[in-house]
Amino acid sequence: MTTIKILGTGCPKCKTMTTVVREVVSENNIEATIEKVEDIIEIMKFDVMTTPALVIDNVVTIKGRVPSKDEVLALFN
Asked: pTM of the full predicted structure?
């Protein structure tokens, strides 16, 4: 089971990234838990200064922008 965390304080880009990631996981039957992290102290533990950020199994994969669905899917292959 993959653990996905979306780091962001709730800005429009953060919400868009959450939607994109949820759609990719759903459409491709990926077994994953998705957690939205909005606490700035928790976000800083990942050494991320720009949000949104995508963390997969505790590795920051994307930060500071909203990825495409294809880009998110490629992270699981």
From this structure: 0.94
